[in-house]
Amino acid sequence: MRQANPAHFILITFLLVTSCKSGISNPPPLIEQIQTPVVTESTALPDIKTENMFSFDEMNISAGFNFPDRFSQGTITIAEVVAKSDEPAAPYEPAYPQHARILLTNSINTSERGIRIFRADEINAVDPRIFDSLKAVLAGQIDQRTDFPRLAGAGRVIDAQAAPLSFQNGNGYRYLIFKKFDASGLNDTSMTYMYQGLTNDGHYIVSFLSSVNAPFLADLATGQIFTTDEETTNYIKLVNERLNAADPTQFDPPLTALDELSASIMVIQK
Fold first, then answer.
1. How many domains does the chain have?
2. For residue 3, with 0-12 CB atoms within 10 Å meaning exposed, 13-18 middle and 19 or more buried, which class applies?
């Protein structure tokens, strides 16, 4: 992975060879945000008991979480162990090792969003940068953060609202992220809430992904195509400044509700 320069944004281009059918030889340039996001202080949360607990025998663990009162009550669509991938599911993803997965569905979350639990040593074997990034962020080196599980896109338009947040038996952080393959503005006001954590024993990596909406960005969601570095830099700066200045209750669902769900996660080795 290329080392980012935290002082600047850069606009990069690439050549994508497509089939003759597509007729496209020069796609628009990528957006890559490399600004160090703002980190806010974490808020102490009360002791939590886990209400939704599941057993994942193949991984020899039990794991679960709670639905916060302020979170639109969801439906647990699946809780299972996902087999090791022989090949990446997409070019931007690693070949994930065996992991536990709890997928949720409600008015906000899609069926692809939810909680995932990986063995830390297996992730380290697949891609050491993921584990190194997680440990660096937990140590306060936030500019080394890597999205995991990986999201589609070559560069970040949104990288905001970063905050440390512990779960029941580990430590982590949450932030908002949105990535694109081209150099253009947001098409809508939706983005991803991403939580990443490490159990206290260092054995398991935890993630929670949820869709979240920021309606106060509606005037910036024009899908505008940028043609210069300056346009790209100014737009990304404006979007992230507005996100970082927003109160958690301005989001749908509120970030505080998603934080409560993240903080309620429990992973127990049998």
1. 1
2. exposed
